[in-house]
Design a protein that fits this description.
Layout (H helix, E strand, L loop, with lengths): L6 E7 L4 H8 L3 H13 L4 E4 L9 H14 L4 E4 L3 H10 L11 E5 L16 E5 L2 E4 L2 E4 L3 H18 L8 E4 L12 H14 L7 E5 L17 H13 L6 E4 L13 H12 L1 H9 L4
Parallel strand pairs: 1-2, 1-10, 2-3, 3-4, 4-5, 5-8, 8-9, 9-10
Antiparallel strand pairs: 6-7
Helix pairs in contact: 2-3, 3-4, 5-6, 7-8, 8-9
């Protein structure tokens, strides 16, 4: 069974992908436009744009990308760069009419970057909130438990609702962050799953969205599992199987992948569950047993 109500933010306009890096380095607007169209045709409900650190020196290219993408697709755009001045350019350049009235998305804001809320003076927008890090009593640190993720989420949401009149819970995407499961010695994938379940069941956070960068889970792993199935797709589907029923509704991913709710006896799902339950080095061994 597929995930019918899962929203996909297309991730491919990003220098982290070799083919996309070439387009960005060559300032190939037509190629970037084609990439945007392909993602929407494959089911993306939003397009994320990351043109790399060169945006600090060449803001003209950034504007050309935003305008070029909006010429060929009518979905909202998410701009991925943690810098106030760069995000100002994005919000001023974005044409809401070309997105069928959809608000732009600022990716991303955290307790370490609350100055980004000044952007709301330019125009309303939706925002991806990073709940994986905190700033409390002047101390900045990564969150290490699902309770800390929940506490950070509640604090950020409360502060933003007070600072930005007119914004509502449905304008937030809480990103709990996921790590590559093939190198997850600290149990961060399990923490992400627990965080999603706690946020999804919290009475003060109903109607809020939750998101993850899904492809991070299968980074550095082979494509094929021992049972002949697609290992990367299986692990990503396993994560969705464990979280979508509890409120995860948005993923930053490559559109067109055939994500499925996995059966209880699925080979990869059973290995995934074993890995997150044992933790530490044994977790890595459980993942390796899926392909070695």
């Amino acid at each position: 069974m597929s995930f019918e109500n899962l929203n996909i933010i297309g991730e491919r306009i990003n220098p982290g992908f070799k083919s996309s890096l070439k387009l960005i380095e060559n300032q190939d607007i037509e190629g970037i436009q084609q990439l945007a169209v392909k993602q929407v045709d494959n089911g993306a409900t939003c397009i994320n744009i990351n043109v790399g650190t060169g945006v600090m020196e060449d803001q003209g290219f950034m504007k050309d990308v935003i305008r070029g993408v909006q010429e060929v697709v009518s979905v909202p755009l998410s701009f991925d760069f943690p810098n106030l001045e760069v995000q100002k350019i994005f919000l001023n350049c974005y044409d809401q009419k070309k997105a069928n009235g959809g608000l732009p998305i600022v990716n991303s804001i955290s307790e370490l970057r609350m100055e980004m809320l000044h952007l709301y003076d330019i125009r309303p927008f939706k925002m991806i909130l990073m709940a994986s890090e905190r700033s409390e009593n002047g101390i900045q640190s990564p969150n290490k438990t699902s309770n800390e993720v929940l506490e950070t989420t509640l604090r950020m949401v409360d502060n933003i609702l007070k600072a930005c009149p007119g914004i509502c819970l449905s304008d937030f995407f809480i990103d709990v962050s996921v790590s590559p499961i093939g190198a997850d010695l600290e149990g961060l994938v399990k923490m992400a799953i627990e965080s999603i379940r706690k946020i999804g069941s919290h009475g003060d956070l109903q109607n809020i969205h939750m998101s993850v960068g899904l492809s991070n889970i299968s980074v550095m792993l082979p494509n094929i599992a021992l049972d002949g199935s697609n290992l990367k797709l299986g692990l990503e589907s396993a994560f969705l199987t464990e979280t979508v029923p509890y409120g995860l509704d948005t993923i930053l991913a490559t559109p067109g992948r055939n994500y499925q709710m996995l059966d209880e006896d699925n080979f990869v799902l059973k290995g995934f569950r074993n890995a997150i339950n044992v933790g530490g080095f044994e977790s890595l061994m459980e993942i390796q047993s899926l392909y070695l």
